[in-house]
Amino acid sequence: MIGKEKPVLAVLCGDDQAGDLTGSPAMQGIESTALVRYTGAAGLADALRDADVLFVYDFLSRAVPDAWHAANRLRWLHIASAGVDPVMFPAMRDSDVVLTNSRGVFDDSIAEYVLGVVLSFAKDLHGSLDLQRERRWQHRETERIAGREVLIVGTGPIGRAIARMLRAAGMRVAGAGRRARTGDPDFGTVHASAALAEHLPAYDYVVAVAPLTEQTKGLFDAAAFAAMKPSARFVNVGRGELVVTGDLIEALRSGAIAGAALDVFDTEPLPADSPLWTMPRVLISPHMSGDFLGWRDTLIELFADNFHRWRTGTPLRNVVDKQLGYVPSE
After folding, report:
1. Which residues are identified as catalytic?
2. What PROSITE patterns does the entry give (predicted)?
């Protein structure tokens, strides 16, 4: 127990998100046991003064570093996403504040998205839609996905869910992570990300789902795209900053790779003048690959469960290793 005094909880949310929280039975339960301060970015510093806990519900916000000076009593920060890069700055990393994330919420939904875009490429579904709009009856042959080789860069829970789903569809899957190994239950072989370029030529699909760290930022650059098969498709459901966007655009223009499905970008929303919007072999979605019906409620319920654990001294779920930048695998 943390004592009889009500703890102070600061909740960072956008103006259009407050209703998700105040209407949630899970948050209403917390409000009966804590002093809750809902705030946008502009009021975060004031909300953080004497706060014990910060719930970053607006997980795309970059407001936490600028308000951190006011966090004079903070003991725990929870972010409503699997990625923690928006709150992973030096002062946070070096502090005693415990960091948890929402690992596990989006795994299967993102895996379904990846299977969907793989099928869209293989079966030319976007081409069929274009022809339908033109009322053109044009017979084509399409590809099989069974037996195709896939490299999943990122071996955490989301990567594992993707591996299991693609393997079930008949694809041959391998992973890339910090440490090379064989005999992995989901990936079989895992290559070292540090040697990524030497393994890329073997794969028909490359899926980026690694967490954003100093080691993975810009991992997919001109050299990486040049190493891929000209027939390879690239899928990014991790973080936009994993990719050097200009290098990806040039790889698509030159035919170094055959296509890309992109759910995340280094600038979001994707600027209207980006060439990616109109490239013929590019599928774009607005950072929504994990967002299934009811996902907001699930995020709030996960936090509420962790808040109860924190109040009762039970070990928290999804504790992030702040030096690694993610929750270590068990």
Report:
1. 239, 268, 287
2. D_2_HYDROXYACID_DH_3
